[in-house]
Amino acid sequence: MSAMSRVLTAEDVRNAEFSKPPIGKRGYDKKSVDDFLQLVARRLDGRGHLSADDVRNIGFPKPPMFQRGYDEDEVDALLDAVVATLEL
Predict the structure, then answer these.
(1) How many CB atoms lie within 10 A of CB 74?
(2) 6: confidence class by pLDDT, cuts 50, 70, 90
(3) Residue 77 belongs to what domain range?
(4) What angle do CA 69, 83, 88 make, to 5 degrees?
(5) Percent helix, strand, coil in the chain (nearest 5)?
(6) Residue 9: C-alpha distances to residues 12, 20, 62, 81 (Å)
(7) What's the domain count of the chain?
(8) Keyword Cell division, does the record have it (predicted)?
(9) Is the pLDDT of residue 4 over 90?
(10) What is the enclosing helix (H) or strand (E) of 82?
């Protein structure tokens, strides 16, 4: 069973790592993703009020020009797994 097809824990979210996007793509801003994932981890620890809709509707800015952030597909896959976990 893959990490994305099971219930996620706060520790899973805290330990998530993402690749850089392909050359020519900027991806998602790292700080914005990291800050949001801290909120997600708090929620999974039972200390936050984030809903599945909040996760589903989040948007991240691009990193500054000439910098590459996190691969969008990898971040989106984790967020899909978070939504599935929150909807259980």
Answers:
(1) 19
(2) confident
(3) 3-86
(4) 155
(5) 50, 0, 50
(6) 5, 24, 27, 10
(7) 1
(8) yes
(9) no
(10) helix 72-86
**Is the model's pLDDT at 69 over the cut of 70?**
yes
Cβ atoms of residues 42 and 10 within 8 Å: yes
What is the arithmetic mean of pLDDT over 9-19?
Answer: 98
The C-alpha atoms of residue 15 and residue 70 are separated, in whole angstroms, by 14
For 7, the 3-state DSSP assignment is coil
Phi and psi of 49, rounded to 5°? Answer: -125, 25
Pick the closest to residue 15 from 30, 32, 37 (CA basis). Answer: 37
Distances (CA, A) of 43 to 7, 25, 54, 69: 14, 31, 11, 24
pTM of the model: 0.91
Mean pLDDT value across residues 31-46:
98
Mean pLDDT of the chain: 94
